[in-house]
Amino acid sequence: MSPNVIALLPEIVLTITGVLVMLIEAVLTPGTSRKSLGWFAILGTIASGAAAFYQLQFGTVQAYSGSIQIDAFSVFFHVLIAAVVLVTLLGSLDYFHGHATHAGEYFALSLFGAVGMMLMTCSVELLMVFIGLEISSISTYIMAGFRKGQATGSESSIKYFLLGSFATAFFLYGIALAFGATGSTSIAAIAAGLGSSATPLMAFMALAMIIIGIGFKVSAAPFHVWTPDVYQGAPAPVVGLMSTAPKAAAFAVLLRITFSGFPGFEPRWALLIGIIAVLSMTIGNLGALLQKDVKRMLAYSSIAHAGYLLVAFTAFPKDAIASAAFYIATYSAMNVGAFAVITQVSGYDETSRTAEDFTGLALRRPVMAALLTFFLLSLIGIPFTGGFFGKFYVFSAAIGAGHIWIAVLGLANSGFACFYYLRLIAALYTKSLKDVTTAGEDIAHPFTATTIPAGIGLTLAAAATLILGILPGQVLQLAQRAGTTSLAPVEKASMPVIEVK
Amino acid sequence: MVPIAWYLILAAILFSTGVASFLIKRNVVTIFMSIELMLNAVNLTFVAFAHMWHQVNGQIFVFFVMVVAAAEAAVGLAIIIAIFRTRSTLNVDQINLMKS
């Protein structure tokens, strides 16, 4: 196999699977179950995750004239994205049951979205980053409005689309200015050109524009306004996907651009990102406090988590990349899990929306309530959950670089955030008035029993959250390797040196 | 010959116009058009810089931006149709089912 094929193997596997799913969907009789297509998509996702692991043995390799680089960093994010898509697909296999929607297209779009996200994490050329970003964004725009008969679904989709394209324009303008300042759109060449750039101010404006563009994508304050509406209106499994995997990819891009592309501007962008981090944490947590809708509350919580993650950028490069990568992994595991539970509880028609609807869930669905409690505890950052170590590494990395103030603000914020998570947990275990008055109301719920694939997905998410909280060593090691390799210079590795029998 | 800065200033003005109309306009289609204006401002910047550096990179980038903008337009207009079907309006102030 040529190095070019190996470098894009996970993406190639996903693309082929996605295209096949699309083609088969077209010849199936309308109205029949699309579950087999879902299983096929799941197999493709597992294969692509395995392909990403397979890339790990080659070390750092550049392909396609130096525009794609696979290293421990890209492998880390590839596996993470594949895992998130896997859990989402498992959770949504039965989601469309009994609804005349194009479930096959949904599975295909998940796969295409994953291709874009993966492409973002392994590109070291901003043109490729842009294309990956667009592939992932366009797929998620459509998925957000998948329940097109419902007005909130289309509304969520249009908001996501307009704000997403707005952000893309900023990102592109940033790339254009970086090209103007350094004469190149390759991240390594930008870093090399910065020192001799005649227009450092334009280079800094370029970086600021790129940070704004990515800031929209990861829903960091003050670019977060779209998040609550979009998360509220989009289908729950889609929210689980789009609140984790595209954000992970966008953070990977931001890590590469800031630490590898603009290392010379570190003090300036660290301050800028630090301010955005503090704003996101505070606005996210304050906003979450006021919400009644659970999905809306989790949307604000995801803004706050983007803030915690951005704290990592103020640390020393190696620690920053390792702790940010680890945090993204833990955040993805617990958030995708929380939304998988919501998918199971509220179903396609979203019968349970507000905290009131979730009251007394422990009596009706004890396992679901226990799982949701576990994921919420992890989002708080209780020890023995992934969320604890994620926060621990990020804040200790920031303190290690001497940014005590931001770590203190972050810790104060996580303490404050306990309140709204615990409020929801308390509601889960309270007997609701509704249950007393209308016994047997459970019939109204479409999912009275969890199906096997959804159960597997939930187990995977819970296991990942638990393992990251008890035995974080392996993942942390890979994250540290990601930090080291993505910072190392790659002049020699650009020669294709792999031989495969 | 026109100096490069003029192109850049024109592009910056176009981009700012796009941002301003994105924020001011109330019709979804007009908002969508202002995004296209921003993308074209970016294209102009790329072409100007490509000329300045005597490099073809910038021009290649423009082609990709145009292709992606077309793909985005296809999806965007489909979403706009979906919203018009359910709400019978394209005014963003009335597309507000989810304000808490």
Automatic annotation (TrEMBL), chain A:
Parts of the chain that traverse the membrane: 6-24, 36-56, 76-96, 158-181, 201-226, 238-257, 269-290, 297-316, 322-345, 366-386, 392-422
Any one of the GO CC terms: plasma membrane
Source organism, top-level taxon: Bacteria
Family, as annotated: Belongs to the complex I subunit 2 family.
InterPro entries: NADH-Q_OxRdtase_suN/2, ND/Mrp_TM
Keyword match Phosphoprotein: no
UniProt enzyme class: translocase
Single GO MF descriptor: quinone binding
Subunit-level organization: NDH-1 is composed of 14 different subunits. Subunits NuoA, H, J, K, L, M, N constitute the membrane sector of the complex.
Keywords: Cell inner membrane, Cell membrane, Membrane, NAD, Quinone, Translocase, Transmembrane, Transmembrane helix, Transport, Ubiquinone
Record bears the keyword DNA repair: no
NADH:quinone oxidoreductase/Mrp antiporter transmembrane domain segment(s): 124-416
Membrane topology: Multi-pass membrane protein
Subcellular location: Cell membrane; Endomembrane system; Membrane
Protein name, per record: NADH-quinone oxidoreductase subunit N
Physiological role: NDH-1 shuttles electrons from NADH, via FMN and iron-sulfur (Fe-S) centers, to quinones in the respiratory chain. The immediate electron acceptor for the enzyme in this species is believed to be ubiquinone. Couples the redox reaction to proton translocation (for every two electrons transferred, four hydrogen ions are translocated across the cytoplasmic membrane), and thus conserves the redox energy in a proton gradient.
Enzyme Commission number(s): 7.1.1.-
PANTHER family the record matches: NADH DEHYDROGENASE
GO biological process: ATP synthesis coupled electron transport
Recorded catalytic activity of this chain's protein: a quinone + NADH + 5 H(+)(in) = a quinol + NAD(+) + 4 H(+)(out)
UniProtKB/TrEMBL annotation, chain B:
Recorded superkingdom: Bacteria
Membrane topology: Multi-pass membrane protein
Family matches, as InterPro entries: NADH_UbQ_OxRdtase_chain4L/K, NUOK/Mnh_C1-like
GO molecular function: NADH dehydrogenase (quinone) (non-electrogenic) activity; quinone binding
Pfam families with a match to the protein in the record: Oxidored_q2
Subcellular compartments: Cell membrane; Membrane
Assigned GO CC terms: NADH dehydrogenase complex; plasma membrane
Reactions that this protein is recorded to catalyse: a quinone + NADH + 5 H(+)(in) = a quinol + NAD(+) + 4 H(+)(out)
E.C. numbers: 7.1.1.-
Membrane-spanning intervals of the chain: 6-24, 31-54, 60-84
Keywords: Cell membrane, Membrane, NAD, Quinone, Translocase, Transmembrane, Transmembrane helix, Transport, Ubiquinone
BP GO annotations: ATP synthesis coupled electron transport
Family: Belongs to the complex I subunit 4L family.
Subunit structure: NDH-1 is composed of 14 different subunits. Subunits NuoA, H, J, K, L, M, N constitute the membrane sector of the complex.
Function: NDH-1 shuttles electrons from NADH, via FMN and iron-sulfur (Fe-S) centers, to quinones in the respiratory chain. The immediate electron acceptor for the enzyme in this species is believed to be ubiquinone. Couples the redox reaction to proton translocation (for every two electrons transferred, four hydrogen ions are translocated across the cytoplasmic membrane), and thus conserves the redox energy in a proton gradient.
Protein name according to UniProt: NADH-quinone oxidoreductase subunit K
Gene for this chain: nuoK
